[in-house]
Amino acid sequence: MTDISKAGTFKLGDRTVKRLGYGAMQLAGPGVFGPPKDRAAAIAVLREAIALGVNHIDTSDYYGPFVTNEIIREALHPYPDDLVIVTKIGAKRGEDASWQKANSPDELRSAVHDNLKRLGLEAMDVVNFRAMFGHLGPAEGSIAEFVGVLADLKREGLVRHIGVSSVTPTQVAEARAITQIACVQNMYNLAHRGDDAMVDDLAKAGIAYTPFFPLGGFSPLQSETLTAVATRLGATPMQTAQAWLLQRSSNILLIPGTSSVAHLRENLAAAELVLPADAVAELDGVAG
């Protein structure tokens, strides 16, 4: 059995989590919309993740919408004492499955209450505000009002820690001037390294960085390089990409998602993959 503790731990707010966690997005239907084809299989994946030592689950009430949170509660409630559940607010799903902004103060408050209700919690461990200024990634725009709403909810005891997602360095600084920030969640991988400086700055501040899409946006040539390195190491491209992230910085927390128990086990095996220096050097060159 894979020992995911080999990947180490890091602080998420005041909680210590293993650096390999689980992202629940793929438990919903196609396009993260509607129910899964096999609800029992989704429940089995969550229970296997916990059995393998995962204690950090990333979710959102707008996955489905509502689907993943309801499945998490059915599968795992009452929750293990060490489990940290992180959610995102700031968006909603249209009836046509579109992704839309939902960031008025009332919508943000309602989203936190909805997450608590569906998950069966009295307080959220971490709530990320998901900025939606850009269609394809982070874009500038003040997030002070939105983070301020979360800071109020924290004072009320409904939110323990606050994070931000799809944000620029300027927005991270703006958020940190308002309240303590536990994590930043952006797209980052060995092919897309625009957040290199941010990762290092957050590490110095003891703030977690949670990258998503570990294989997202690769060119064919970049994919070929990754596959060649993975083959040489006797690993999958996904395992290799995740191992690179784990070795990149100690504050990086991974949340690979899947709806398959076999794929879950394969992903978590990245905890035991140590990349030799020549492989790291070759993978570092992929972004160029």
Which descriptors apply to this entry?
288 residues, TIM Barrel, 11 strands, 39% helix, seven-stranded parallel β-sheet, 10 helices, single chain, alpha/beta, two-stranded antiparallel sheet
Blueprint (SSEs and pairs):
Layout: E1 9-12, E2 15-18, E3 22-23, H1 39-51, E4 56-58, H2 67-76, E5 84-89, E6 91-93, E7 99-101, H3 105-119, E8 124-130, H4 144-155, E9 159-165, H5 169-178, E10 181-187, H6 196-205, E11 208-212, H7 220-233, H8 237-248, H9 261-268, H10 277-284
Helix pairs in contact: 1-2, 4-5, 7-8
Domains, number: 1
CATH class (first level) name? Alpha Beta
- How does the overall form come out from the CA principal axes? globular
Structural class computed from helices and strand pairing: alpha/beta
Q: Total helix count? A: 10
Q: CATH homologous superfamily name? A: NADP-dependent oxidoreductase domain
Write the element-wise H/E pattern from the N-terminal end onward: EEEHEHEEEHEHEHEHEHHHH
Low-confidence stretches: none
Mean pLDDT equals 97
- Which architecture would the CATH scheme give at its second level? Alpha-Beta Barrel
Instruction: Please tally the β strands and state the result.
Output: 11
Measure the end-to-end span.
36 Å
Which strands sit side by side, in order, in the main sheet? Answer: 3-4-5-8-9-10-11
CATH topology name: TIM Barrel
Cα-atom radius of gyration: 18 Å
